[in-house]
């Protein structure tokens, strides 16, 4: 059986890490694409030269030509600018929406059957642009945010209790902005509801740290934003698709009536398998969680409206 092909569109901090994780996990051949000349080629060669040590035979190539992503099974998109300290994700909109438009055209023309995972910020608007420009079916275009945000929530809860991260299950829903919704009523540690283990005031602090998780890292790195955990999150989604795992993960999916939302990409639990997004799972939220979710969705709407104006300008 031929190896699968993964195309990383954008070969910066996240793109390079995506390539690295893909070859280590044996997911398939990797193509790194970027506009910067030499950089994707250099990273690809460096990765390839780790093959004899790590024991993988995958092909890893770097390119500045979109035609080289031809036949990709999965495209993971990080092309665009990241945040600098003091910037919100929304500040990236004007630059990144134009980049996303040209990338989406390239994917549509060269990898029309691929499962597309968008990571570029502001995520909710970028994944919407990808869907519109490619015209791909809604099950084949997804945004990565919730897997990362949920992982941050789980990390902080595990740190607080001194338990294994594997004992903590949690999801973060809504848009990928500062008003994302860590769902306290669905957070459990070894099956025990979180509010039985951590007092409400402390949980509030943990949830706020989760909401500000990206900003905290930008503040520390100064010239870059988070990349290890965002890459790990997208690879988990790619793996669910390539291995037909039918895993339930919180991802930005196009809603058409679910959660009372129509026509917007919002972070909700979805099932990912060989059919891409095979199912959107609806969960009950408490009244206050529902209120936060609705507020987050109204922010997504504003962002998408702004991006559409920029695209038609
Ligand atoms: O969870 C999430 N969704 C995120 C998103 C978590 C963290 C960071 N997130 C966003 O991902 C971040 O705000 C950025 O918008 C993207 C990529 O972040 P990364 O840290 O990888 O940024 P880099 O290192 O600057 O890489 C971006 C690359 C860089 O090499 C540029 O040359 C390239 O994108 N780039 C392009 N490649 C191809 N085509 C075009 N047009 C292009 N423009 C820039």
Helix and strand layout, with pairings?
Blueprint: E1 5-9, H1 13-24, E2 29-33, H2 39-48, H3 51-54, E3 60-63, E4 74-77, H4 93-110, E5 115-118, H5 123-134, E6 141-143, H6 146-161, E7 168-169, E8 172-173, E9 181-182, E10 188-189, E11 192-193, H7 200-211, H8 213-221, H9 228-242, E12 247-256, E13 262-273, E14 276-280, H10 287-312
Parallel strand pairs: 1-2, 1-4, 2-3, 4-5, 5-6
Antiparallel strand pairs: 7-10, 8-9, 10-11, 12-13, 13-14
Helix pairs in contact: 1-2, 1-9, 4-5, 4-10, 5-10, 6-7
Bound molecules: 1,4,5,6-tetrahydronicotinamide adenine dinucleotide (TXD).
Structure report:
With 313 residues, this protein is α/β, with parallel strands linked by helices. It has two domains: 5-143, Rossmann fold; 145-313, Alpha-Beta Complex (L-2-Hydroxyisocaproate Dehydrogenase, Chain A, domain 2). It has ten helices and 14 strands. It has helices spanning 13-24, 39-48, 51-54, 93-110, 123-134, 146-161, 200-211, 213-221, 228-242, 287-312, and strands at 5-9, 29-33, 60-63, 74-77, 115-118, 141-143, 168-169, 172-173, 181-182, 188-189, 192-193, 247-256, 262-273, 276-280. The strands form four sheets. The chain has a six-stranded parallel sheet. A three-stranded antiparallel sheet has the order 7-10-11, covered by helices on one side. The termini are far apart. 1,4,5,6-tetrahydronicotinamide adenine dinucleotide binds at residues 10-15, 34-36, 78-83, 92, 96, 99, 102-103, 119-121, 123, 144-145, 148, 176, 214, 224-227, 230.
């Amino acid at each position: 059986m031929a190896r699968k092909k993964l195309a990383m569109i954008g070969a910066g901090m996240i793109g390079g890490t995506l390539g690295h994780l893909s070859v280590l996990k044996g997911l398939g051949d990797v193509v790194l694409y970027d506009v910067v000349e030499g950089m994707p080629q250099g990273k690809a060669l460096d990765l390839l030269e780790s093959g004899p040590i790590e024991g993988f035979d995958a092909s890893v190539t770097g390119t500045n030509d979109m035609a080289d992503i031809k036949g990709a099974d999965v495209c993971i998109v990080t092309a665009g600018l990241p945040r600098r300290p003091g910037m919100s994700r929304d500040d990236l909109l004007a630059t990144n929406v134009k980049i996303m438009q040209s990338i989406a055209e390239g994917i549509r023309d060269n990898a029309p059957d691929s499962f597309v995972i968008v990571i570029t910020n502001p995520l909710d608007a970028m994944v919407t642009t990808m869907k519109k420009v490619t015209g791909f079916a809604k099950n084949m275009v997804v945004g990565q945010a919730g897997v990362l945000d949920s992982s941050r929530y789980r990390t902080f809860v595990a740190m607080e209790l001194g338990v294994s991260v594997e004992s903590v299950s949690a999801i973060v829903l809504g848009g990928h902005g500062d008003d994302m919704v860590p769902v306290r009523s669905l957070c459990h540690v070894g099956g025990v509801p979180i509010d039985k283990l951590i007092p409400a005031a402390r949980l509030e602090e943990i949830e706020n740290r989760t909401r500000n998780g990206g900003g905290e890292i930008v503040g520390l790195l100064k010239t870059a934003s988070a990349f290890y955990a965002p890459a790990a999150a997208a690879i988990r989604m790619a793996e669910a698709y390539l291995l037909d795992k039918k895993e339930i993960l919180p991802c930005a999916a196009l809603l058409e009536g679910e959660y009372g939302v129509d026509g917007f990409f919002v972070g909700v639990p979805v099932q990912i398998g060989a059919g891409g997004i095979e199912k959107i799972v609806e969960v009950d939220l408490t009244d206050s969680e529902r209120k936060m979710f609705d507020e987050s969705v109204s922010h997504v709407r504003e962002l998408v409206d702004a991006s559409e104006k920029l695209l038609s300008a």
